[in-house]
Design brief:
Elements: E1 11-14, H1 22-28, E2 33-38, H2 42-45, H3 48-58, E3 62-66, H4 75-88, E4 92-97, H5 99-112, H6 119-122, E5 134-138, E6 150-155, E7 160-165, E8 173-176, H7 186-204, H8 212-234, H9 239-253, H10 266-278, H11 282-297, H12 302-313, H13 322-339, H14 346-349, H15 356-363, E9 369-370, E10 376-377, H16 378-390
Parallel strand pairs: 1-8, 2-3, 2-4, 4-5, 5-8
Antiparallel strand pairs: 6-7, 9-10
């Protein structure tokens, strides 16, 4: 196990009707003028925004509002939010929504404290010295942004999608009410489940040895998702299954399952170009890319894939030919994703094989390599896209 520092300061408030505590929590963490940041009409229509407004008013906290966050959040709304915060003296951002809203809020939080372009952080030109605090009211179990230091934004000029992470961006508090996810369509629920599982897999496939504790944590989260996700697809109102999935989403990405081990994240980077170019759901893109990445890299450490296949998917170990076990695990993963309604290839996702050169170019590694479980060149990434384009059960 590698040396590590684990920092997770977020206060989690979990359960039914906990959004009523939003105003009290903002005050607890020093907020006096809030940006209420959210997505589309669903939060308004459901009455959630109304309840949160009332909570802020009861706590005597002033607020301004900015809605309109879309999946794969764009930089233009971030710029609008930064300007709104600066003009109104906002000192706290309350994100009401899923990962896209939280990611947009984190980007705004960075930009308010910075004299330059917030995009400098996403393209590696600068590191922040401060960010205004963020709290969340989660409505989608998926991205794990409610407990992580990470944020992903798409630059509209060129549709370039990039991520950034810094502990300054860990939310001060996150309200997790599983009942808020019960109205999600099955497709969105499945996309979220896929994202959660991918966050675990990016950590699980590692070159670090002797990480049995975090291996077992990863495996447990994956097995929980395999058990609970079909339940909520069949019955959207299954609160207990929703609760397990919501907590799994947080655990999967606040890094408690990833400490002390090298991580990968190539699948996420490769997928970002798909959702950046086609504006597809991130989870759907991962359902296509992650098994394709596995097909390409599994020979690098066949026995790690065999362990995953045995422990998570219940595959029988083929001692004469371990590669059979590894491939069977990947096959079962792809089949599970398909069973919950996810695409498994470019055609089902709405992507085009002829765009692979563009996707590789947008990835932007040139003649270099991107690190992780296996170091990938541009040619390797092209091969993964090609596997993804033609994948089948």
């Amino acid at each position: 196990m590698d040396n590590f520092t684990f920092y997770s300061p977020t206060k989690f408030v979990f359960g039914k009707e906990m959004e009523a505590q939003a105003g009290t929590l903002v005050k607890e963490f020093g907020g006096s003028k809030v940006l209420l940041h959210f997505g589309g009409k669903s939060a308004e229509k459901s009455g959630l925004l109304g309840r949160i407004r009332n909570s802020l008013k009861e706590a005597k906290i002033d607020f301004v509002e900015l809605g309109g966050v879309h999946p794969n959040p764009l930089d233009d709304l971030v710029y609008e939010g930064i300007d709104l915060c600066k003009k109104n003296g906002v000192d706290f951002i309350l994100a009401v929504g899923g990962g896209s809203v939280i990611d947009s809020s984190k980007a705004i939080a960075l930009g308010v404290c910075y004299q330059g372009d917030f995009w400098d952080f996403y393209c590696g030109k600068a590191e922040p010295k401060a960010a205004i605090p963020v709290g969340t009211v989660l409505t989608i179990a998926a991205a794990g942004s409610e407990g992580s230091p990470d944020t992903v934004i798409t630059k509209k000029d060129g549709m370039i999608k990039r991520g950034y992470g810094n502990d300054l961006l860990r939310p001060r508090f996150s309200i997790l009410n599983p009942a808020l996810t019960q109205t999600l369509p099955a497709y969105q629920t499945a996309c979220g489940a896929t994202d959660i599982m991918a966050h675990v897999c990016e950590r699980y496939f590692t070159n670090t040895k002797n990480v049995e504790t975090t291996d077992r944590l990863c495996e447990g989260v994956l097995m929980s998702m395999i058990h609970e996700t079909p339940k909520v697809i069949a019955d959207p109102n299954d609160y207990e299954a929703r609760a397990n999935i919501m907590w799994a989403g947080m655990v999967a990405h606040n890094n408690i399952v990833g400490v002390g081990r090298e991580q990968d994240w190539n699948s996420h980077g490769i997928e970002h170009e798909l959702s950046g170019l086609y504006d597809c759901a991130h989870g759907a893109g991962l359902a296509v890319i992650m098994p394709a990445w596995m097909d390409f890299v599994y020979k690098h450490d066949v026995m790690r894939f065999c362990q995953w296949a045995e422990r998570v998917w219940g595959c029988k170990m083929d001692y004469q030919n371990p590669e059979n076990t590894a491939r069977e695990g990947i096959k079962r993963f792809r089949a599970f994703l398909h069973s919950i309604g996810m695409p498994i290839n470019f055609a089902e996702l709405g992507a085009k094989e002829e765009d692979i050169p563009t996707l590789v170019e947008k990835f932007g590694i040139g003649s270099g390599k991107t690190g992780g479980f296996v170091h990938l060149s541009a040619a390797d990434i092209a091969k993964i896209y090609k596997i993804a384009a033609k994948a089948s059960l």
